[in-house]
Amino acid sequence: MCGTSAVAAPQPAQVAAPAAATLGVPDTTTIHRLLWSTMAALAHANDTGNYSVIRDLGAPAFQTTNSPATLAAVFAPVRNQNIDLSVTLVVTPAFQFPPALVQGGLLRLRGVFPLRPNAIGFDLLYQNVNGQWRLFGIAVVPLVAQTQQPAPTRR
């Protein structure tokens, strides 16, 4: 995914999650709830400039790695472009690959909200903490629409 709005996530090896390794991928309703609630929190943070709530919703390692000021700096490009992330709440995401458990039992959601003129790409990691999926890493970027060149005409 291109762009600069990626939050440094702790290394999965640093996080002991033996119980998470035995969990499966959540059902579709839970996947969408996680994705849309994260996008709502980020939209509110961008609107208010207050990133403490999205930080506090994260896993303990995410909270340790990212201060509200760090998150504000990371998402400044999206905020400064006045991109309204709230529109992602009414669009079904297109996943790049099915949600899956990856290294360390983290749940990865990666895809795009197919909006016009610019889609919104996302790459999210969640860690299971005491039976709840909590944000572990986040990247959200606007994807500039590629303009299609008209096909050359033959004479």
Helix and strand topology:
Blueprint: H1 18-21, H2 28-48, H3 52-56, H4 60-65, H5 68-74, H6 76-80, E1 94-95, E2 100-102, E3 106-113, E4 119-129, E5 132-143
Antiparallel strand pairs: 1-3, 2-3, 3-4, 4-5
Task: Describe what this molecule looks like in 3D.
By secondary structure, this protein is α+β, with helices and mostly antiparallel strands. The protein has one domain (19-143). Helix content is 31%, strand content 23%. It is built from six helices and five strands. The protein has helices at 18-21, 28-48, 52-56, 60-65, 68-74, 76-80; strands spanning 94-95, 100-102, 106-113, 119-129, 132-143. Strands 1, 2, 3, 4 and 5 form a five-stranded antiparallel beta sheet that branches. A hairpin with a 3-residue loop joins β2 (100-102) and β3. It is globular. It starts with 17 loop residues before the first helix and ends in a 12-residue tail after the last strand.
**Approximate helicity band:** 25-40%
Distance between the termini: 40 Å
Shape: globular
Strand percent estimate: 15-25%
Question: If helices are DSSP runs of H or I spanning 4 or more residues, what is the number of helices?
Answer: 6
Report mean pLDDT, rounded to a whole number: 85
| Model regions low in confidence, pLDDT < 50 over at least 5 residues | 12-21, 147-155
Report Rg.
Answer: 17 Å
Number of structural domains: 1
Element string (H = helix, E = strand): HHHHHHEEEEE
The biggest beta sheet, please? Answer: 5 strands, antiparallel
Instruction: Please give the number of β-strands.
Output: 5
User: Which structural class fits the helix and strand makeup?
Assistant: alpha+beta
